[in-house]
Amino acid sequence: MSTKVEFRESCDGIEPSALKGFFVGWPNPPSPETHLRVLKGSSHVVLAVDSTSGRVVGFINALCDGVLMAYIPLLEVLPDFQGNGIGSELTRRLLRQLDGLYAVDLLCDTPVKPFYERLGFRSEHGMSLRDFDNQCGRPE
Ligand SMILES: CC(C)(COP(=O)(O)OP(=O)(O)OC[C@H]1O[C@@H](n2cnc3c(N)ncnc32)[C@H](O)[C@@H]1OP(=O)(O)O)[C@@H](O)C(=O)NCCC(=O)NCCS
């Protein structure tokens, strides 16, 4: 990867056009416009931005009650940028923002568990509800 990536802890100034290519493999993915709504509706975000193009190449977000607990719904690095430490740095920066809480939870597929374990997470049991008709996001 020859491009320079900068990390931002806000989505100020980000346009939907900078958010293309995410949700790889999702059958009914959110549009870039909806993705931006997700980021703006999150209590915490960290973005990895290609300094040359202004394109977002990775992001992580959290929903936090500000007292005890936070949930990390999404972390993704665009395929061409994976394997360069961006996902780890996004997570480390988000965890710094969440410092002092009792719990930070997330769900992930089994192959990604070692990635999170290296960042200090440990495996727990989880439960979930999914409505794939709404995978692209609830309308405004
Ligand atoms: C998971 C993800 C965010 C990691 O981002 P990244 O920028 O590639 O991560 P890093 O470069 O910081 O990787 C750190 C280490 O984790 C490993 N790793 C990264 N992604 C992995 C995966 N999907 N499965 C297993 N190991 C993984 C890397 O091999 C690397 O190890 P190494 O340094 O020994 O080579 C990225 O692969 C991604 O966007 N995947 C698709 C979406 C996804 O699975 N998100 C997580 C949802 S919970």
Describe the protein.
With 140 residues, this protein is α+β, with helices and mostly antiparallel strands. It is 19% helix and 23% strand. It contains three helices and five strands. It has a five-stranded mixed beta sheet with strand order 1-2-3-4-5, covered by helices on one side. A hairpin with a 5-residue loop joins strand 2 and strand 3. The mean pLDDT is 97. The structure holds coenzyme A. Coenzyme A binds next to strand 4, helix 2 and helix 3.
Bound molecules: coenzyme A
What proportion of the residues form beta strands (DSSP E)? 15-25%
- Give the SSE order as H and E letters: EHEEEHEH
Tell me the strand order in the biggest sheet.
1-2-3-4-5
Largest sheet: 5 strands, mixed
Share of residues in helices: 10-25%
Radius of gyration: 15 Å
Using DSSP, what is the number of strands?
A: 5
Low-confidence stretches: none
Average pLDDT across residues? 97
Q: Provide the structure class.
A: alpha+beta
Distance between the termini: 37 Å
**Overall body shape:** globular
Number of helices: 3
Q: Notable features of this structure?
A:
140 residues; alpha+beta; five-stranded mixed sheet; 3 helices; globular; binds coenzyme A
List the helices and strands and how they pair.
Blueprint: E1 5-8, H1 32-40, E2 44-50, E3 56-64, E4 69-77, H2 86-97, E5 103-105, H3 113-117
Parallel strand pairs: 4-5
Antiparallel strand pairs: 1-2, 2-3, 3-4
Provide a concise account of the structure shown.
With 140 residues, the protein is α+β, with helices and mostly antiparallel strands. Helices cover 19% and strands 23% of the residues.
